[in-house]
Specification:
The protein has 2 helices and 30 strands. It is an all-beta fold.
């Protein structure tokens, strides 16, 4: 669940931040599942919640399933999917060359902003925000530029419900109905995540930082001070911080980090995206999709060979953005291509069994989009 009792971010407390970079240790991670060393400057004393030893029972709503008649888009060739969000029966995908919108109710597929780069998506104040070479809102199927004092190319968007945090290659900014502030200087921000009482900031080449209410501190492992230099994504659920990097997948329990790399069973150390769903944590890697559950990794069947770059989850459906530009959907045992090079020609019907809308699971689904919009 998203952080509720948020500390107040103030520009005066953070402008002028000076990054202190530690030297890199090129030593390999040891084999086995031994936990990583404590991180330097660790001050968190969070007591992690206990994860249930039993997998939660799946409970379905009483509503009758709805069969959706979908038609595919034209054949296209795109580069990697940077971000995807599913909300209200609509899937949104950010590309280097536009924003793709897939409406499951009608089967309509639209591409907006061709030629514009989009890398990050978030819902804030009832609107979809899309960031890249500029920041836009989606209004009546049109992209409307957002005026603001932020600088640089947008690489991360995150809403705490009250404000929109905007990470760019020039720093970290916030936008609210009352003010716009610069929170961090000289940072190339890649991803943002609140925990119970602080804000984590992952960067491109500059490391991992956490704001504890007073200042930012760089976090790293004593044995390998550059292991968090390139952070791709983060998620927080059930008292644990989950981190995806080009050096593997990491779990932080409030006191120590536990690494998961190819030595511990990951299909690849290049992890692009994280999506918690209930007590499972799904991971997009360049060598397939896996999920982490009760200190064990499991492959997601039929997605083992997908070079996945983005994930979204709704109920029993997994939406996957790939490195070759496809958008896939796994529903039960069926995997279908919704958009991309292998999409069927326009107006050719897809098998109805692939696209039967199933009611949401009763388990807590912590996809970024839905968690933000249903925050208590």
């Amino acid at each position: 669940m998203f952080f509720k009792n948020l500390v107040t971010l103030t520009a005066t407390a953070m402008i002028g931040l000076t990054f202190m970079f530690a030297g890199c240790d090129d030593g390999d991670l040891p084999e086995g599942k031994a936990p990583a060393n404590d991180i330097s400057e660790q001050t968190a004393t969070i007591e992690p919640e206990r994860v249930s030893v039993k997998e939660p029972e799946v409970v379905f709503a009483s509503a009758d399933p709805m069969t959706i008649n979908l038609e595919s888009a034209e054949t296209v060739s795109l580069d990697k999917v940077h971000d995807i969000i599913y909300y209200d029966s609509t899937l949104y995908a950010a590309y280097n060359d536009g924003l793709v919108i897939y409406d499951f109710r009608t089967g309509a597929v639209e591409k907006l902003g061709p030629g514009k780069e989009f890398r990050a998506l978030a819902f804030y104040d009832g609107k979809l925000y899309a960031g890249g070479e500029g920041l836009y809102t989606l209004e009546d199927k049109a992209l409307v530029p957002v005026d603001g004092s932020f600088q640089g190319s947008v690489r991360a968007l995150y809403s705490d419900g009250f404000r929109l945090l905007i990470g760019t290659d020039k720093g970290l900014f916030s936008k609210s109905p009352f003010s716009e502030d610069r929170l961090m200087d000289s940072a190339s921000v890649a991803t943002l995540q609140f925990d119970r009482d602080g804000l984590w900031v992952g960067t491109v080449g500059q490391g991992l930082f956490r704001w504890d209410g007073n200042d930012f501190k760089k976090r790293f492992l004593l044995r390998d001070t550059c292991i968090f230099d390139f952070v791709h994504d983060m998620a927080y659920a059930h008292g644990y911080l989950y981190l995806a990097a080009e050096s593997g997948f990491f779990v932080f329990d409030g006191g120590k980090w536990t690494p998961w790399t190819t030595a511990e069973g990951m299909p690849s150390d290049m992890v692009w995206d994280i999506e918690p769903a209930g007590y499972k944590v799904y991971l997009a890697t360049d060598a397939g999709v896996v999920y982490y559950y009760e200190n064990t990794l499991y492959p997601v069947e039929k997605l083992e060979d997908i070079s996945a770059t983005a994930l979204a989850i709704s109920g029993r459906k997994i939406f996957i953005g790939s490195a070759d530009g496809r958008i896939l959907m796994k529903s039960g045992d069926m995997v279908s291509t919704l958009y991309g090079e292998n999409t069927l020609v326009e107006n050719e019907s897809l098998p109805e069994a692939d696209f039967t809308e199933t009611p949401e699971d009763g388990i807590e689904v912590l996809s970024v989009t839905e968690a933000e919009l249903t925050e208590e």
